[in-house]
């Protein structure tokens, strides 16, 4: 491959790994992130290893910021061929304290304890905006370069919680379901202009966002962390590198007849009923 690839959220754990892998294949890579320092760090690592990358500040929720980023990418590398929509995440205000509502919870007045009834619409809104609009708006901006050209595609990052919602995180599960649904919608919408649209649905990867939920300070697993391993037939968390081969496949012309799919990379989590 020798394409121009833009990745959002690529200062983060998963998409920095994908940026480095895509650069190793000979692509020119624009590392976009809200945190410019994080984007620059990844770009520097790629350039030091002999690749071709730039770090660019961009907020996936602000079209102006994305337009500015696109100008920089176009001036540096030319037209964009591939967009990886990696920015995403959850918000604590859209998360319940317990997996199930029990009567005792309704009289629990502990500071910070949240049932479904205490969920803050602001947390829900943040999560839906970041994951759904944060996928849609960058696509509006960068896919204009792809229309009518060959070998172009969009890769979204959904989650296995889009197939079956995980307990405690209704906003994040719903927002990722929206990302999967949008992946199919956009694949159909773009089918006549040469842009393929697919998604990865990663399972559980230990990252900064979920480390405190899944591991104790001594590195042992929390109850939820152990539950995940018990529910994962392959009995381990994903490593960021587990996402590379599927990403390369979906961004490459080797998958030129593949569009509108969401591929689980989850050690069998989504396939397993637990029995
Ligand atoms: P991460 O927090 O390490 O990376 C996310 C990056 O997005 C961060 O660098 C952050 O600065 C950036 N970002 C946040 N808001 C932004 C905005 N408004 N504009 C631009 N950039 C912004 O997270 P990660 O674990 O690498 O997750 C990457 C993607 O994979 C996300 O969409 C996440 O929802 C998804 N995912 C992660 C897991 C997992 O287990 N880690 C599982 C399934 C899906």
UniProtKB/TrEMBL annotation:
It comes from the Bacteria. GO terms for molecular function: oxidoreductase activity, acting on the CH-OH group of donors, NAD or NADP as acceptor. It holds the Pfam family adh_short. The keyword Oxidoreductase applies. The keyword Oxidoreductase applies. GO terms for biological process: carbohydrate metabolic process. InterPro entries: NAD(P)-bd_dom_sf, Sc_DH/Rdtase_CS, SDR_fam. Keywords: Oxidoreductase. Gene3D superfamilies: NAD(P)-binding Rossmann-like Domain. Belongs to the short-chain dehydrogenases/reductases (SDR) family. This is D-mannonate oxidoreductase.
């Amino acid at each position: 491959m020798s394409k121009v690839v833009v990745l959002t959220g690529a200062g983060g754990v998963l998409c920095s790994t994908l940026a480095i892998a895509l650069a190793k294949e000979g692509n020119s890579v624009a590392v976009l992130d809200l945190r410019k320092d994080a984007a620059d760090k990844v770009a520097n690592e790629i350039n030091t290893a002999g690749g071709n990358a730039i770090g660019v500040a961009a907020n996936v929720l602000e079209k102006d910021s994305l337009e500015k980023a696109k100008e920089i990418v176009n001036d540096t590398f030319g037209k964009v061929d591939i967009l990886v929509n990696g920015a995403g995440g959850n918000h604590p205000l859209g998360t319940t304290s317990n997996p199930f509502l029990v009567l005792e919870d309704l009289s629990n007045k502990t500071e910070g304890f949240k049932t479904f009834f205490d969920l803050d619409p602001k947390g829900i809104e943040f999560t839906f905006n970041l994951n759904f609009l944060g996928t849609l708006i960058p696509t509006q901006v960068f896919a204009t370069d792809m229309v009518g050209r060959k070998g172009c595609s969009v890769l979204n990052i959904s989650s296995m919680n889009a197939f079956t919602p995980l307990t405690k995180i209704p906003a994040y599960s719903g927002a990722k379901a929206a990302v999967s649904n949008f992946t199919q919608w956009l694949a159909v919408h773009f089918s006549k202009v040469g842009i393929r649209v697919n998604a990865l649905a990663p399972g559980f990867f230990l990252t900064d966002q979920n480390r405190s939920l899944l591991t104790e300070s001594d590195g042992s697993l929390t109850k939820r962390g152990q539950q995940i391993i018990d529910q994962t037939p392959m009995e381990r968390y994903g490593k960021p590198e587990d996402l590379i081969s599927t990403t390369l496949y979906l961004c490459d012309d080797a998958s030129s007849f593949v569009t509108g799919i969401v591929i689980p990379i989850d050690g069998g989590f989504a396939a397993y009923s637990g029995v």
